[in-house]
């Protein structure tokens, strides 16, 4: 990475944007799958409002559905943060503007938003995994336990990133030239002047390891318990719902992996980190794209099928047999 700011550098102020470059192509191509994904997320939100908030369908676990909806929302902001701090600056389209201004807190906030939603993206899969474990160990008090977990964990997830980002309060953001094979004028946002000479890399890699381990352990406990109890679902819907949630959890892992690789390389091979920086957004894209598509395409709640009346369905289902 680069330690020299371009702010005030006349060479960058006079820079002319070139439309026909690889960073421009890699910034535009993801729109092919990001825009359809947004429409899928809107459909998921509509089903959530209709089935959970309005009809209050007893066959649905509202806490798991809420966590998935929240995860999709946070992933959307994470994707926007990556675009504003990595993809768009790398195209060179804002280079002249960025070089013409002084380092400021607005650029720092843009960088901070990327780090903040990076932390939330790491924590949400663990929460989803824990909620899936609850019905296996305590199906009788499922609602009350899940409700308590969600009520406690959501504020923690919102506030937790500030524990590692508060030293950035006095820092100011600036623009820097990407090194390696990147062309002149292709930049990225960074910061300087934090408290205690704080660096984000070390805490990010430790959190990546911790939350990935938490997610993996939760899922291992889940499947070990299911295998031990030899649970056999009679309902095809329930089996499909469990498979859907399993695929959703797995689809969240690429964000862990790409983030871990980038931070690891940044710590030990800083000069090579510019190349991995270009790959990191695709890890968050996996999180943003795979989760809603898998959820929408595989979960029975989105299948338009004829079902038995709700009263009869409730009579025939145990409380542990919620379809989400």
From TrEMBL:
UniProt keyword Disulfide bond, yes or no: no
UniProt keyword annotations, A-Z: Membrane, Transmembrane, Transmembrane helix
Domain of life per record: Eukaryota
InterPro entries, alphabetized: 7TM_GPCR_serpentine_rcpt_Sru
Transmembrane segments: 20-42, 63-81, 116-137, 149-169, 204-223, 244-269
Keyword Membrane: yes
UniProt name for this protein: Serpentine Receptor, class U
Organism: Caenorhabditis remanei
